[in-house]
Amino acid sequence: MSANKDIASHPFYERTLESKPIFEGRIISLQVDTVSLPNGETATREIVRHPGAVAVVALLDGKMLVVEQFRKPLEKVQVEIPAGKLDAGEEPEAAALRELEEETGYRARSIRHLHSFSTSPGFAEEVVHLYVTDDLEPGQAHLDDEEFLTCEAITLEQAQAYIAEGRICDAKTLLAVYAWRMYALTGAF
C-alpha cells in the first residue's frame, strides 16, 4: 500500500479505542491510546505529540554552519545544524529561514527542501523538514531568552571527526553530514 490514503484498510492498522491525555507542555504533549490490534487483542500506545521542526544544511564557502549547545536530555554539549520547532500555523520553509538567521546570524537568499523525516515513529509524531542552502548573506542572530549557543563553520573533515568523537550524534545532523558528503562526491543532494 503506498500512501496513508486508505490506511484503515491496511492489515496492520491499529484502530484507536480510547485516547487519554496525560501531559500538556510548551513543546510536547503525551497521550496514552488503547488500540485494537490486527489479531483482535488490545494494547496501549504512549504517543508524544510535537508540532514538527525544521533543520538547515547551510553551506558557507565550502563549510557547514553548526551550533554548539547543551542538551539537557543527553546531559552533554552537542554540535548540531541550525534547527527549531515550527510555531503554530508556520510553514516549514518560513521556519527554516527564521531559525537559520536566529541561530547563526546568516540569512538564506534561497533555500531548497531536501526531505522530511520522522524522528522516532515508534512513540512520537515529530517530523523534521530538512532544507539546504549555499546562498547566504550576513544577517543578525536573535537567540531566544533561554537559548545559549555558539555558531561556527566547519569543514566536512571536522564534521566527520565530530561524529567519531560523539560531538555530533543527533539524527538530523548525521543526515546533514552524510547528505553534504554525497554532495561533495557527486555535486548533487
Report on the structure:
With 189 residues, the protein is of the alpha+beta class. It folds into two domains: 7-49, no CATH class; 53-186, Nucleoside Triphosphate Pyrophosphohydrolase (Alpha-Beta Complex). 21% of the residues lie in helices and 40% in strands. It is built from three helices and twelve strands; from the N terminus they run βββββββαβββββαα. The strands form three sheets. Strands 4, 5, 6, 7, 9, 10 and 12 form a seven-stranded mixed β-sheet that branches. A hairpin with a 5-residue loop joins β2 (29-36) and β3. α2 (156-165) packs antiparallel against α3 (171-186). The mean pLDDT is 95.
CATH superfamily of the largest domain: Nucleoside Triphosphate Pyrophosphohydrolase
Instruction: Label the overall shape.
Output: elongated
Rg (C-alpha, Å) = 19 Å
Low-confidence stretches: none
Oligomer: single chain
Q: Spell the H/E element sequence.
A: EEEEEEEHEEEEEHH
Mean pLDDT over all positions? 95
- Provide the CATH top-level class of the largest domain: Alpha Beta
Return the domain count: 2
Distance between the termini: 28 Å
CATH architecture of the largest domain: Alpha-Beta Complex
CATH topology of the largest domain: Nucleoside Triphosphate Pyrophosphohydrolase
